[in-house]
Give the backbone structure.
Amino acid sequence: MSNVPDENARTHAARIDARADHLRLVVRDGAPALLFHWFWLRHQAPEEVHPTTRERVLDARHVALDARPRSARLEDQVLVLEWPTGTSRFPLAWLEEHAYARETTPLAPPPHDVDAIRVTATAHESLASLAAEALERTRRDGAVVVLGAGLDTEAIIDGFAAQGLAVRGTHFGRIEDLRTDNTSNQNTDQLGYTDAPVDLHTDQPFLEEPPRYQLLHGIRAAEDGGENLLVDAAAATRYLRGVDADAFEVLTTTTVTFHRRQRGFEKVLHAPLLRVDGAGELVQVRHSYFTFAPFREPFDRMEGFYRAYQRFARVIHEPAHQWRLLIAPGDFVLYDNHRTLHARTGFRGPRWVRGVYFDEVSR
Ligand SMILES: [Fe+2]
């Protein structure tokens, strides 16, 4: 293989990055990345033509906006996409000719590498120093996972108190014992106290000032299931703005109503899902499918709102955009409840996780 033809060398320089909702194609070294929506590629599939007239037979109305191939690869100068319905082969020259989007600023998907947000307690001499690193990382990354901090929740709380955090009691109590046989908390008529899955949400979005941080401390493992999912909504919002500016606009300007009603508690609050600053950066996310009041948008805007909501949902529910982990006994997670969404898969067994909210003392 010492005699590699020029054409092949060019092929080897071409590379693709198959993202959740689009393809990123670099045709040759030094060329700007070309971006193609999967649905656009599905619509333009070369095989979707009449066998003799070569006219396109697929109308855009038949293309699902969430169309996505099972795999994508390069073969010589051809992009090969394997759809559930068949195979498409796009010559790279054709894609270059019909490219409609060149990447100007890189579009970074929300992070998913749990190793990057993990800290080991044994690297620290004290819980106070461990808490200092955990808080610094949470302020930077939106969440931290700490391994091996022990089972003493109060000692961990003291560690964060030494870093300027104060426990924030809620209508559940000072510490939430998230277990199916809970007898110590108030207002346990909510999903967190069951073994059911709880999908992505933020906590207490119905309060003017939701608790800033939540500690989730593992005490007892589940027999099966009980994984935690975290999503950096600041990164997801940035990504949403890059892939769907209209959805970003709708979700940052539409006020929704959160209505929490439990046996011994009721609260209503109006706020946007995504509050951003002048530069479009996320200031605060509020998102909780189980505390939304019925949406009340003008008739001609309701469909657009649902479309925007579902577009953001596709970003945050993409597994490649989520940190996914198990909180083992003695481990804990700290996340920024104004920035990071969290979820828990359903489980079996005596899983016991303790939840503690914190605010910055100076706030
Ligand atoms: Fe929660």
Q: What stands out?
A: Residues 6-98 form a domain with the NE0471 N-terminal domain-like fold (CATH 3.30.2020.30). The helical segments are 6-13, 38-43, 92-98, 127-141, 153-161, 233-243, 245-253, 299-316. The chain has two domains: 6-98, 111-363. The chain has eight helices and 23 strands.
